[in-house]
Structures are given as C-alpha cells and as structure tokens.
C-alpha cells in the first residue's frame, strides 16, 4: 500500500518515488515498530569529519573506557536512517555496554556509489582516530550493519585495510548483508522472490539506484540482463559457485536459463558491479580482514550471498561465525520483542560481541 501511495505522490509532483518511500518507511517504523527503551542510555548527535552521526552511551560510564560499535543502517542504499535502527542501536549499546555510533550516510538515487561508503569510511576513521575523546578503546571497535549496512560493515574495514589505515577494526558484524548485485537468480532469490519484507524485484531496484542513480534499466536488472552471458558463466564457477551452498538451500531449485545480457549496459556498469567496495563477494583479496559474525535468514533473498561471503572470508583465513536464522526473513531484526526469532538472533549477536570485543 505504501508503495502505491508513493507512486501516486510522485506522479502528482510531491517528490520523487525514492524520497517519498524513504519518508513513509521512517514513519511506519516510528509509528508501528517496536519502541526503543532509552532507559540507561544517553544520546547525542554529532558530526564526524563532515558526516552526521548519533552517539549512544550507557549512563554512568563517562569515566570508563568502553568498546565501540559503528553502526550502518539498512535500506538498500535508498531508504533508512539512524531513526529506523534506533531500537537495535540502543539494545546494542545497553546489552554490550559499548559506545555505539550510528552513521547518517548519503543515500541514492541522489548520491550513488561510492558516496555511502565514503561517508562511512570517514566516520569510522574519525572514531578510530579520536576514540580517546569518547573514552573508547580504539583497539576494541567493531563495524556493524544490516542489509546494505551489512555491505558497509565489511567494505569499510576492507577499504581501511587497503588504504593502510593505522588502526584496524577489530570485528565486522554483518546482519543479512548485501554482498553482490550481479545475479538475482540465486536459489534464495528465487525461493523468496516475493518476500516477506524484501522481494527479488526490490533488490533489482535498489541495485539500479545505488549503481546508476535511476531506474531506466530496471527491466534489465529484473531480467538479469545487466550482466552478459559470458560473464555470468564465468562468475558461476568462482565467487557465485552454487556448489558451495548447503544442499538444503538447493532443494526444489531449478536454475533459470542465462539470458543474453545487454552488452551496452554491462559496459556502462561493470566497473561498479565488479568493484569489491560495491560488491564485496567479488573481491580478489579477502585476507587480513577483521573477525566476522555473519547473520543470515532462511527466508531472505540475500541468504545465499551472505553464506557465500562467509565461506569466502573463511577460505581467506579469517575467523568467521555464521548464524542462519531458520525461521527468519529479511529485516526480521526490526521485530525485537515481537518475534522470538529476532530476540534469539540478537541474543546470539550480543553474546558474540561480549566475548570477542
């Protein structure tokens, strides 16, 4: 219903479809989502190297040196804000007794790749470099995020590694992460094409917006024609090798025939789609990255790429903990206190953070 209202509003000139959908999403989560318990937490807004952030700290901890978590919200790089993840960031702050920095990064379609990543790298580097000002131990800082934020939670430490930043991120915490935009016909994409919460076609829309800033080629993304047949055949033998998936993920799956890709479109977008900071699953090198916690959900279109990314991280000699929520779906973390599966998953993540950070 919200999507229809936003489409009509866009037609009537009240704003672009992504802008109206963004506002509707924030209002829905604020009005109908679980309410964050602010007891025991102080909240303040700040700017880190030009990037707006919200800082959460346990009450009474001002003289303690605490670990830190930099959180990146989800929303397909188009939707979301620090407000839409306020519940989980407050829970992380209180239950792990950490200082949490939630980043308000720039969004598509106005700001395409790599604007979001640039903002998150700046904010994280600032926090690492100035941790002492917040009574935070710079050696105990993690990146964390859900969906598109899960992408950022791994690409930020990847870019800091490549830029030889002096202080490494200690942990990367990836909640149903988006790790590639090359193939929308993976088993979990087909099995969960109609959601709940996230659909296959919505993923194609978000990919087009983040990559190009408009949806003129959306039918090609939806039909998997944004990548040529020869490239698709090649990547199916490397980082999108379905033989690495558990057998239960493949039950009932029949691989759709590879379509003939649009050569002109592929030539225009390939440098972005194959960029490891855009699609980390495609990275040549995943060595020397922080220890990872990867949360996937069984009924999520992104389940398989999250699993394949965890596998590649492990193959690169990184420590990896993988948790697959058997009854979870994309975005189920927004239902804390409502869905037991969400509470169980967060409890496991919090346990991991307490033990490792």
Task: Present the secondary structure layout.
Elements: H1 2-11, H2 17-32, E1 41-48, E2 51-58, E3 66-72, H3 86-96, E4 99-103, H4 115-129, E5 136-146, H5 148-162, E6 171-175, H6 187-191, H7 200-212, H8 218-222, H9 229-235, H10 263-273, E7 291-299, H11 303-315, E8 320-329, H12 340-356
Parallel strand pairs: 3-4, 3-5, 5-6, 6-7, 7-8
Antiparallel strand pairs: 1-2, 2-4
Helix pairs in contact: 1-2, 4-5
Features:
357 residues, alpha/beta, 12 helices, 18% strand, globular
Would you write up a description of this structure?
The protein is of the alpha/beta class and 357 residues long. The chain has twelve helices and eight strands. It has helices at 2-11, 17-32, 86-96, 115-129, 148-162, 187-191, 200-212, 218-222, 229-235, 263-273, 303-315, 340-356, and strands at residues 41-48, 51-58, 66-72, 99-103, 136-146, 171-175, 291-299, 320-329. An eight-stranded mixed beta sheet has the order 1-2-4-3-5-6-7-8, with helices on both faces. Helix 1 (2-11) packs antiparallel against helix 2 and helix 4 (115-129) packs across helix 5. The relative contact order is 0.13.
């Amino acid at each position: 219903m919200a999507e229809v209202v936003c489409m009509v509003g866009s037609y009537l000139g009240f704003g672009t479809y992504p802008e109206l959908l963004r506002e509707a999403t924030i209002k829905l989560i604020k009005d109908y989502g679980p309410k964050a318990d602010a007891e025991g937490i102080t909240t303040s807004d700040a700017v880190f190297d030009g990037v707006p952030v919200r800082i959460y700290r346990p009450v009474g901890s001002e003289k303690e040196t605490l670990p830190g978590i930099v959180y990146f919200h989800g929303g397909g790089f188009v939707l979301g804000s620090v407000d839409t993840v306020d519940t989980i960031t407050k829970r992380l702050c209180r239950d792990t007794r950490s200082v949490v920095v939630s980043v308000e990064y720039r969004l598509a379609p106005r700001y395409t790749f790599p604007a979001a990543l640039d903002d998150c790298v700046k904010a994280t580097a600032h926090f690492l470099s100035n941790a002492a000002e917040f009574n935070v131990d710079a050696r105990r800082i993690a990146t964390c995020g859900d969906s598109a934020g899960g992408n950022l939670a791994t690409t930020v430490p990847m870019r800091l590694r490549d830029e030889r930043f002096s202080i490494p991120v200690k942990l990367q915490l990836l909640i149903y992460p988006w790790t590639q935009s090359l193939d929308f016909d993976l088993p979990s994409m087909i099995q969960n094409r109609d959601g709940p919460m996230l659909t296959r076609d919505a993923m194609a829309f978000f990919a087009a917006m983040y990559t190009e800033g408009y949806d003129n080629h959306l039918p090609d993304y939806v039909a998997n024609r944004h990548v040529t047949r020869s490239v698709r055949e090649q990547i199916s033998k490397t980082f999108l090798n379905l033989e690495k998936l558990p057998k239960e993920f493949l039950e009932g799956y029949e691989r759709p025939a590879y379509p003939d890709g649009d050569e002109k479109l592929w030539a225009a977008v390939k440098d972005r789609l194959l960029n490891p900071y855009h699609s980390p699953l495609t990275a040549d090198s995943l060595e020397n990255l922080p220890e990872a916690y990867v949360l996937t959900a069984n009924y999520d279109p992104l389940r398989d790429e999250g699993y394949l990314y965890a596998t590649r991280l492990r193959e690169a000699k990184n420590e990896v903990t993988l948790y697959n929520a058997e009854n979870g779906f994309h975005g189920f973390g927004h239902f804390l206190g409502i869905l037991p599966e969400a509470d169980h998953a967060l409890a496991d993540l919090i346990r991991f953070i307490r033990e490792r950070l």
